[in-house]
Design brief:
With 495 residues, the protein is an alpha/beta fold. The protein has 20 helices and 16 strands. The protein starts with 11 loop residues before the first strand and ends in an 8-residue tail after the last helix.
């Protein structure tokens, strides 16, 4: 990626860090780039400077006395939402940095051995880029990656938490830090991993993925790290592993918690040293790979059971991201159903629709398999349903057994009923009293009487229990109203 910067001298940066050595290092590095610099030692001083001067970027530590980096970030964003803020943190405070990214920080840098002048300068330059200077290779959702022939599927959502996670994914995409995506099976972990890759400067390279649970230990080792010809029985030629093939790109380690302990140790070394040892190889091979790992397991429990290395967990969990299950984002279900219905209709040449009742069944189902299960159900219904409209009767017994028939009523409409009062009432009745008749039948007389009683009481309450007014409201004469009240045993409420 080539970044052209002009007139750095016009850019003013506020550096905030309570460690004098760090301030000096930052100042020395950025002075060489001809930036204007103001250095302060705590958040309160920074806020005073921000109130009285104009800055183009703020570079701040997370943990500071008087006013923390997070508090400074919030104050800055409240006053000037567009100014980029870059956070600096040690490994011990990485959670705070992640929280900062969620609240609008441009990026974060990790202090320590991984901190370099090149990374600092590159991050600052990115923060100053104008759209005309550089357009990052962010691909639209749905873009077909010709490099690896994999379709980047759309992330369909209107859920606020999911929207925040997507924004967070975009913010961390530029970082090289490892991402650990957690969530139940079928929540879209791989989809999020691909989205991070698509939003990153590595998007022009092929996205690599390997399922750590699908391969036996020996085969997985060769798949990840490669092998030399003759290193074991069957190794008839040299093979590059996924880490080599993902050089300058992103590598997804799907279900990383299922990896054996010996392989975990080897993976930890790759993450620490940025080099791989091929099976049977004589020298390590340098690699530049952004690792994204996923798991649906309780990884902390696996650590307690000595099934997963704690040091590897901390290496992978630099940027944690937890996806909510589908049952916690029910507003997305109708949207997802519509998306999958269109997708499978196009794939099969069908033109199936789905009833409101069927959608409401889907909304009330628990979806233990999450979005993947929903997609499978919709595909099954498109193929197997007989009519042109999918109804609850077309749904699997597994779903219908969990959602009773009384919950099949259509979802509430967003629009208000229109028309004259009689039409509005009819529309309301149609929506509110859409019931299925059970096999044993119903007592129509009792049902009608119950509804009539509710209307009479509502009319009386609306008119302060003045019978003449209530009768007029219902287009009845007073005598008829009184007779109905006696018949239905409706009496005036106590004063």
């Amino acid at each position: 990626m080539r970044i052209l910067m002009k007139n750095n001298v016009s850019k003013k940066i506020l550096i905030v860090d309570d460690e004098s050595e760090m301030r000096i290092a930052l100042e020395t590095t950025l002075k060489r780039e001809n930036y204007q610099l103001v250095c302060v030692e705590d958040g309160k001083q920074a806020l005073d400077q921000f109130e009285n001067h104009v800055f183009d970027l703020i570079l701040t530590d997370v943990r500071m006395p008087k006013l923390s980096g997070l508090e400074l970030l919030r104050a800055v964003k409240e006053r000037s939402p567009k100014i980029p803020v870059v956070m600096m943190t040690a490994y011990g405070t990485i959670d705070n940095a992640v929280e900062a990214m969620k609240e609008g920080a441009f990026d974060y840098l990790i202090k320590g051995s991984g901190f370099s002048a090149d990374v600092l300068v590159s991050t600052v330059k990115r923060a100053f880029l104008n759209p005309q200077d550089y357009v990052p290779p962010v691909r639209p959702m749905g873009f077909i990656d010709k490099a690896d022939s994999i379709t980047a599927k759309k992330i369909v959502t209107q859920n606020e938490e999911m929207k925040k996670l997507l924004k967070f994914a975009e913010n961390v995409a530029y970082s090289k830090s490892t991402v650990l995506i957690m969530g139940e099976t079928g929540t879209g972990k791989e989809l999020f991993a691909r989205y991070i890759h698509q939003c990153s400067p590595r998007a022009e390279k092929s996205f690599m993925a390997v399922n750590c649970a699908a391969l036996p230990e020996g085969l997985l080792e060769s798949e990840l790290f490669g092998h030399e010809k003759g290193s074991f029985t069957g190794a008839t030629e040299n093979k590059e592993g996924k880490f080599q093939r993902a050089h300058q790109s992103s590598l997804l380690l799907d279900e990383v918690s299922e990896m054996s302990l010996p392989l975990q140790a080897k993976l930890l070394r790759v993450l620490q040293e940025h080099e791989v040892d091929k099976v049977g190889g004589k020298a390590p091979i340098p690699v530049d790979v952004r690792v994204i790992a996923t798991t649906n397991s309780d990884i902390r429990r696996r650590i307690r059971d000595q099934e997963f290395r704690e040091d590897l967990y901390y290496r992978l969990n630099i940027i944690p991201l937890t996806l909510p299950p589908l049952r916690d984002r029910k507003t997305d279900i109708p949207l997802l159903v519509s998306h999958f219905l269109k997708q499978f209709n196009n794939g099969t040449g069908s033109s199936k629709t789905i009833s409101d009742e069927a959608i409401n069944v889907f909304v009330n189902y628990s979806w233990p398999g999450n979005v993947r299960e929903l997609a499978n159900f919709v595909e099954r219904m498109v193929v197997l349903s007989i009519g042109s409209t999918i109804t609850p009767r077309d749904l699997p017994d597994k779903v219908l057994g969990e959602v009773p028939e009384e919950k099949w009523t259509p979802l509430e409409k967003d629009s208000e009923p229109t028309g004259n009062p009689t039409q509005i009432l009819q529309q309301s009745l149609k929506q509110s009293f859409h019931v299925g008749i059970p096999d044993e039948g119903i007592n129509l007389k009792k049902l009608v009487e119950g509804f009539e009683k509710e209307l009479l009481i509502e009319a009386l309450e609306k008119t302060g229990w003045v019978k003449n007014k209530a009768a007029t409201l219902l287009s009845l004469n007073r005598t008829t109203l009184v007779e109905k009240l006696k018949k239905l045993k409706i009496t005036n409420p106590p004063a």
